[in-house]
Design brief:
Bound molecules: adenosine-5'-triphosphate, magnesium ion
Largest sheet: 7 strands, mixed
Radius of gyration: 30 Å
Helix content: 40-55%
Number of strands: 19
Length: about 725
């Protein structure tokens, strides 16, 4: 008997706890064991959801649906589920006819696009290490395979190969080893694959978001810088080393000097060879390759510049001239001009120009800023070049976009970067909630049943407004405003925020202990510390240096700073060339949301099973926490306000008709018995059976093709079946 036994022990195998009976969740009947779709569980509670995911995971079934979501748990081992046979199994199949899989979602998106002539998107989110990038790659591989007639990777057309090879390039420059993931993407991306009307891939385009620039100059002790630095230092040919004046090993470069220099099982030398191969497939010329790698070498040289201090004046000085010479040679700028721009930059004081004196700390700061901007602009250039190669959309006017972006980040210390990513996730969750509302409402209308569904998208609006609104002034606008106020500090900015929002919004609270605030996101309450926000948002550069770089004898370097060729910082600000980080992010996100809104979305939620990167081990508390943050439980909550369980008339009659034909004679009427066996049209038959079952009228609705049930009702019917 399944009723009466409880599964709270699934979650608490390691200790005993006494709980009230009312707090205990019920177990689903055996019919629902390892359910493919958790939305079909009749008891939709947290324990059942985790239990279902765990029992599937242990049986190597890493993919599970939860209503509109595909949940993917990282297996941390290679499973034989991505072969060509698998691709064939999913090709042109309906979602219900095959086990849950990333291929099923991709195929659905592909078919939807062709049949409805509607753009599609696949939104992949999750914590670091949960498997977003791996699943994104599977989506692209699947699309490349099913649109190539032969179905074999080795025979993919050049263009399909180029699309696939864009990835190792992006990973070299955009990924790094972190404590959570040996190949962690430190940027978000939206890859749009364009299709011709006949369904052939006709182009691709990559948008990117929030590259973690700070990693270029500092990494925590157990993490590395971006892969490309190590790959270049380990893998460059002798002639390339000579060209870039790179004569050291990894440990000789200050920017690569965290505790971590290599990744177990990964050869940076081999990865460099792979990168060169990928460059070749993309059709990048020798010169272009040199240009891209030159930027990396420049950054390594910047990191090794030693800055000293004049004892008498406290003025910064260059300690080792040979290092500056090396840097300037590779960077293509005159040494004297560079030293001057760095140590005594000219600035306007009223109407006059004066030479400013700089301290060691100020010079160090501007060098780090220079390294970061070089990396970011180099990355932007690289993605643009990839896009130029891939974006050859001729008649293709449809696309499938795949979004691979970090989920909610709630760390012990949360700063501006976390606010940007959490704001993005708040918007994406709102998008999901609204989409679910629209679909549910449509389904209810199609089936002509009475129900006013609630649009839970609105629930998130107050937090979103608080971050992005300009009137009343939200967090981003307030930050932008203070970034141009000469006397503003992080502290005054924080106090201003408190005055503006503390009494006005119940989603905002001043932090009690630190300088910062607490925001209520839908996933959790998050404390943000506002230390350093004005600098982070302004991203200030020494414009004497950037101007000098715009005149570099190396055309690629000059090109990266072309915008800085004219005028000083103030002039550029006037001309609208200056953007704060918050402004840029808000604009990019607005554009992303507009694109997503023009598509039919599909949602993939990746789950990290444990922190040890171990296969077949699931930490239930960790998983539950992610389900809370990533909207899966929110989706279930929304579903539960309506009629989450649906059966077609035929299914319902077949499974539950027996309740009125057998054993329940007293309850069943003559007519109902006939309905469950003889010919009566589906809708009427189901209504009759339901009447005979004497269910509460509010527990179900009879539609045009299906019967809808509130959560838990099917369990009661299953119970009755067992008792027959
Ligand atoms: P980040 O946010 O740090 O970029 P992520 O969610 O993109 O993380 P991935 O890089 O996709 O995480 O996955 C981390 C690692 O987990 C992979 O390098 C791989 O070893 C393993 N992994 C993830 N998904 C799968 C899978 N489906 N099959 C086999 N291994 C996987
Ligand atoms: Mg990733």
């Amino acid at each position: 008997m399944w009723t009466g036994c409880y599964i709270f022990d699934v979650l608490t195998t390691w200790y005993d706890r006494v709980v009230k009976k009312t707090e205990i969740d019920k177990v689903n009947p055996p019919k629902f064991d390892k359910a493919n779709d958790m939305a079909e569980l009749t008891y939709l509670n947290e324990a059942s959801v985790v239990h279902n995911l765990a029992s599937r995971y242990m049986a190597d079934m890493i993919y599970t649906y939860s209503g509109l979501f595909l949940v993917a748990v990282n297996p941390y081992c290679s499973l034989p589920i991505y072969s060509h046979e698998y691709i064939s199994t999913y090709k042109n199949q309906s979602r219900d006819g095959t086990p849950p899989h990333i291929y099923a979602i991709t195929d659905l998106a592909f078919r939807n696009m062709l049949e409805m002539r509607e753009n599609q998107s696949i939104l992949v989110t999750g914590e670091s290490g949960a498997g977003k990038t791996e699943n994104t790659k599977k989506v692209i591989q699947y699309l490349a395979a099913v649109t190539t007639p032969t179905n074999t990777t080795s025979e993919l057309g050049t263009f399909e190969q180029q699309i696939l090879q864009a990835n190792p390039i992006l990973e070299s420059f955009g990924n790094s080893q972190t404590v959570r993931n040996n190949n962690s993407s430190r940027f978000g991306k939206f890859i749009k694959i364009g299709f011709s009307r006949s369904g052939q891939i006709s182009g691709a385009y990559i948008d990117w978001y929030l590259l973690e620039k700070s990693r270029v100059v500092t990494q925590s002790p157990l993490e590395r810088n971006y892969h490309i630095f190590y790959q270049l230092v380990c893998g460059a040919s002798t002639s390339m080393r000579e060209k870039f004046l790179l004569d050291g090993k990894v440990g000789d470069y200050a920017y690569l000097n965290s505790g971590q220099r290599s990744i177990p099982g990964v050869s940076d030398t081999d990865e460099f060879k792979n990168l060169m191969l990928a460059f070749k497939v993309m059709g990048f010329s020798e010169q272009e390759q040199t240009d891209l790698l030159r930027v990396i070498a420049i950054i390594l040289h910047i990191g090794n510049l030693e800055i000293g201090e004049e004892r008498s004046s406290g003025q910064a000085k260059l300690s080792q001239f040979s290092q500056v010479e090396k840097l300037c040679h590779v960077m293509g700028v005159p040494v004297d001009a560079f030293a001057k721009a760095l140590l005594r930059p000219r600035a306007k004081a009223g109407r006059d120009w004066v030479d400013q004196s700089r301290t060691q700390a100020q010079v160090q700061f501007s060098l780090h800023a220079l390294a970061k901007v070089l990396y970011e602009r180099g990355f932007a250039y690289l993605v643009n070049r990839i896009n130029e190669v891939l974006d050859r959309d001729s008649d293709g006017n449809m696309f499938i976009g795949v979004l691979d972006i970090a989920g909610f980040e709630i760390f012990e210390a949360n700063s501006f970067e976390q606010l940007c990513i959490n704001y993005t996730n708040e918007k994406l969750q709102q998008f999901f909630n609204h989409h679910m509302f629209v679909l549910e409402q449509e389904e209810y209308a199609r089936e002509n049943i009475e129900w006013q569904f609630i649009d839970f998208g609105h629930d998130l609006q107050p937090t979103i407004d608080l971050i992005e609104k300009s009137n009343p002034i939200g967090i981003f606008s307030c930050l932008d405003e203070d970034c141009v106020m000469p006397r503003a500090t992080d502290k005054s900015f924080t106090e201003k925020l408190h005055t503006l929002w503390a009494k006005k919004s119940d989603k905002y609270k001043p932090s009690l202990f630190k300088q910062g605030f607490r925001l209520t996101h839908y996933a959790a309450e998050v404390d943000y510390s506002t230390e350093g926000w004005l600098e982070k948002n302004k991203d200030p550069l020494n414009d004497n240096i950037t101007h000098l770089l715009s005149l570099s004898s190396e055309p690629h370097v000059a090109q990266l700073f072309a915008d800085d060729a004219e005028g000083d910082g103030a002039t550029r600000k006037r001309k609208g060339l200056f953007r704060t980080v918050a402004q840029r992010h808000k604009e990019q996100l607005t554009s992303l949301m507009a694109q997503l809104n023009s598509t039919r979305p599909h949602f993939v939620r990746c789950i990290l099973p444990n922190h040890e990167k171990r296969p077949k081990k699931m930490d239930n508390v960790l998983v539950l926490d992610q389900l809370r943050c990533n909207g899966v439980l929110e989706g279930i909550r929304i579903a539960r306000t309506g009629f989450p369980n649906r059966l077609s008339f035929a299914e319902f009659r077949q499974r539950y008709g027996i309740l009125v034909t057998q054993g329940a004679g007293a309850r069943g009427t003559q007519l109902a018995r006939a309905a469950s066996t003889g010919y009566v049209d589906g809708q009427r038959a189901c209504s009759l059976i339901l009447d005979a079952l004497k269910l509460d009228k509010s527990a179900y609705r009879v539609g045009i093709t299906k019967v809808f049930f509130r959560a838990g009702v099917l369990a009661e019917l299953e119970d009755r079946r067992e008792k027959l």
